[in-house]
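Standup notes
- HV: blocked on the assembly model, inputs below
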Amino acid sequence: MKDVIVIGGGSGGYAGAIRAAQLGGSVSLVEAAEIGGTCVNRGCIPTKIWLRAAYLLHSARLAEAFGIQMSIEQQNLAKVVERTKGVAGDIRMGMEGLLGNNGVEVIRGRAVLKSPREVSVEGKVVEGKSIIIATGSSLSIPDIPGLAEAIMTSDQVLEMTEVPASVLVWGGGPVEVEMAAVLNSFGATVSLATNERRILPREDHDSSQRITQMLKEQGIDIMPRLTLESVKKSGKQFECELAGSKGKTVTVDRVLISSRRSNTAGIGLEEAGVQLNADGSILVNEALQTSVSGIYAIGDAAGGWMLSHAASSMAIVGAENAMGGKSTFSSRLVPRGLWTIPELGAVGLTEEEAEKEGFDLAVGVFPNSINGLAMCRNEMSGATKIISDARYGEILGVHIVGINATELAGEAVLAMQLEATAGDLARSIRMHPTYSEVVVDAARDAEGWALYLPKR
Amino acid sequence: MAENIYIPKLGMTMEEAKLAEWKAREGDRVEAEQVVLVIDTEKVSHEIEAGTAGYLIILHDVGTVLKCGEVAGIIAETKDEFEELRKERPSPKPVEVGAAAAAPVVEKAPAREGGRVKISPLARKIAEEHNLDIATIAGTGPGGRIVKEDVLKAIESPKEAAIPSIPPSGDVIDGKRVKETIPLTGMRKVIADHMIRSLQVSAQLTTMGEIDMTEMIKLRSSLLERENSIGVRISYTDIFIFIAARVLREVPLVNSSLIENEIRMWDDINVSFAVSIGDGIRESGLMVPVIRNADRKSLVAISRERQRLMEKVRTGTISLDDMVGGTFTITNMGVFSSEWSVSTPIINQPQSAILGTGAIVDRPAVRDGELCVRPMMAVMLTFDHRVLDGAPVGMFLMKMHDYMLHPELLLL
């Protein structure tokens, strides 16, 4: 009997298996497809390679301001795809090696829960004192008439060797936005429609607005408050009917879908008594325990932020608890970002959320246009916004739009985790000239003494 | 230059003291006149000042017993000196829970470790605004760090969030609700330890009687009338001390101590008298100063001495020397209640007897075969049966009786 059985070898399952092994547990990890899951094979890794390629195109244009005239001779998409496969393969190999190094038994096959202590992998039964479900999520194609034929999935974008001439991106979440950016960078005419009031509805409204502005400047047509009702084939193209107060029909070559749904069907959860949420994700408490004692769920399978690092952080807590610990997971400090141009890096509450929680707010904003390094490097779009509690200076949320935002967010997470106040951040020294100064400057603005902004 | 904090010799008989409370934390900057340490001796609690300004290094924990002259702590002159000395003598660390690689347990431990309180900047800010003593807040953050949540809890329900070593008020123990918790430290502890020890070592029993105070009342009234020319206000306690001292001269066995299989009959007659401290409602304490050679002092001298000692008790300046060396104790419990009551006082070790007196109350009495009303006072003599039997005790009480009914005999 194993101490822990981990179902799924993606970001969550992998980290959880290693953590449980570190704590002295005997661990089996069951994977039906490739180690690395979505992140390595179809998500984070390939998308960031594509977005880097897009950035390099962008910087070729930027070079002109530095007196360097670059012209793009060729864009070999197949090479980009090759790179994604290569890097993914390297990472997979590393992961498999580390699992072996930690003594984790990897079982290939599809797991089904037989009972709270048993997992059946294609006939073979494995027993475990605890089970961690890390089955992740998959593409979920909405039921819209005519859509099926027109679809280009995010998986397909990442493997494309040819760019469609025009694409309608349906949905305004982070994946859709990045996909729109990639397609646009490589020459497609992109329009994005969402039934929400703005793209990135989970982000601060200012972040949404800034990113929307940047995407528009890059030539992407953003269309909020519209619902994709139906798709009709028209020759080689597709007519997409978008309903709303400003309803319209757009004709495109492809419709991009990247909505996802937790993988919780057909793995014996209902029979074992594991309760699900309305959206199909697994219900867990802050110890990441499901409704069945001894069964834990992490990552996309448990819903929430559905980000790779959320999965791996939950994995640590899930594994520790599966090994008898009493850790808890709070999604409060899960940062999220976009590797677009400019980037987005955010953690904590949005301004609306903070207000709703009853805080009296002190908000500070600092634009990249006056950050020294951003000016040097001609990367001046974006701004950093810090939301703090006016009474104690508690940092409630940090929202960075601009170059390197995804890196800068890490510092914001640390500040919030250690309960530093906006005042502490405002007095923190940063090297000059670096982008990291924006966080300090925004904090000073929140505290009311921004040195480099005009008096209000 | 660093300065040592020594355990002082507060009295001739003092040999050791227990560290009761550090009033400052390891690493705190203290001023010369600041009290940094409280020690408990057998008789009294004593505050020790830093003696010099600087940074405190704690060498021994609360509860350690040190001999007079031993070093309890050090005041380092500078922060550098502090670090240097600290390295040489690291303060004791709390026991770690489980192995390093084990799954972390949520620790609700005090965040103090040798004095430094682990607290996040935000939590500290909130605590400061609410005037909370962060040393009393239990931390649930990493390594017992106090985080925002802990402080908010302390604000909402102060007793719950406190370090749970002392059961907080509002708690229910054995089905009873706690109103208030007073730690057993300082004087209270000294009294508690002494009382139980006294009952354990000696074979105590109490002989009770009552004395007709008619003559004593007359005597005292007369003295009070002449208070101005006498120069001092004589109390009943003064009179009892005066009389008891002379009776002890006549019954020396009662003025003795059993020490290691030897009964020492003392030449000196040093009468201790009990002084109550506190309002009696929320605070209750007891000190027992000594009037040395009471048999050789006049009534006025005894009264003066008694009043001087009571003033010292009142102002907290009573010293160990004022309270050692007693050979017999009087406790006047008549001051507590004007109603008739009897009790069984506990012997003040290492003495062999203690005399308790009650209130003077009009009681029915028989004189010449007739029922009448007389002012009577209960007397209770608790004695150590290892040393004394009925005879000396009876004699003592009879003589007390005699002198109180016929004070003219004291002139002889």
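- HV (later): unblocked. Chain A has 15 helices and 22 strands. The interface with chain B takes residues 22-24, 320-321, 323-328, 392-394, 418-421, 424 of chain A (CB under 8 Å).
- Next: hand off to the docking folks.
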